[in-house]
Amino acid sequence: MTAKRFHGTHRKELFGIPATGRHVWWYGAPFVMFEGDKVKDLWVLGDIHGLIERLKDGASNVAVA
């Protein structure tokens, strides 16, 4: 397991927050299950609350340690 920083552009309403067009990011951890050499399943545990706060506050470019 590794922690990742995901990012994207807020283009559509998300969690009830209208699109802002801003770049946003959030932390998460992907969990991948394999069957042989192929990916069987992928789950991502993400910091949704952190993402929502960035969307609300407009703090999409502020890094959090």
Please specify the SSE layout and strand pairing.
Layout: E1 4-9, E2 23-35, E3 38-46, H1 48-57
Antiparallel strand pairs: 1-2, 2-3
Provide a concise account of the structure shown.
With 65 residues, this protein is an alpha+beta fold.
Describe the structure.
It is a single chain. By secondary structure, the chain is α+β, with helices and mostly antiparallel strands. Helix content is 15%, strand content 43%. It has 1 helix and 3 strands, in the order βββα. It has one helix at residues 48-57, and strands spanning 4-9, 23-35, 38-46. The protein has a 3-stranded antiparallel sheet with strand order 1-2-3. The longest helix has 10 residues, at 48-57. The relative contact order is 0.26. Mean pLDDT is 86; it is low at 59-65.
What attributes characterize this protein structure?
65 residues, alpha+beta, elongated, disordered C terminus
